[in-house]
Structures are given as C-alpha cells and as structure tokens.
Amino acid sequence: MKTHPHFAPFFDGLPIYKVEIPDDATWNHKPLTDYNPKRVFAKTGGMTGVSTISGYIKTLDNQWLAFSFLANGYTGSNKPVKELRHEIWAELVRYQADN
Which of 99, 98, 78, 91 is nearest to 22 (CA)? Predict the structure, then answer.
C-alpha cells in the first residue's frame, strides 16, 4: 500500500495509538529523551470473541513496520488481548534491523 498513489489519504485516515514504554527504558544503550508515544497508525475490527488490528508502527530509529494482529475464539473480556497488543507494540518500537 505504501507505494499506492492514494497512500497519503489512506494513512492520514488511520487512528493513532500510543505505545507506552517504561520511564527508565533505554534504547541502543542510551536513555530515551523526547520520546513521542504516538507510534501506531492502524485500524481495528472485531466482534464477539474476535479482536483484530492492522497497520503500521514507527520504530525508535524511524523505520516503518507493517503488522497485523488477529485474536479469535476467546471468551469474556478483550482486555487481555489489548494488553498483549500493547506489550508487543512496546517490543516492536525497539526493533532494529541488522545492517
């Protein structure tokens, strides 16, 4: 989609989610300063027992990752699914590609 001529309006229409990381977190062996938690741009979907989200996440070194998380078949609250989603985002934000 990133190379599609209509990517900009598509991307601009995505909801933005914050990725919270611990206050004492470091990255690349340095303390994080001026951390902007607005790093996930994605669309959700769901129904009873189903929770999905797909979109893009911006890493700390300004790389873009595409992702899609799908959970289905759970019963009860989706709170554990959303908590896991945020834990995974916190890891993906710190991802560094091998150069």
Answer: 91
Q: CA dist 62 to 17, 35, 48, 65, Å?
A: 16, 12, 35, 10
Interatomic CA distance for residues 93 and 79, integer angstroms: 21
CA-CA-CA-CA dihedral for 18, 92, 68, 85, to nearest 10: -60
Instruction: HSE, CB side, 13 Å, CA atoms: give it for residue 31.
Output: 4
Determine the Cα–Cα distance for residues 68 and 80; give it in Å rounded to an integer: 17
Indicate the domain borders of the chain. 7-20+34-93
* Whole-number average pLDDT of the chain: 90
Q: What is the pTM of this model?
A: 0.86
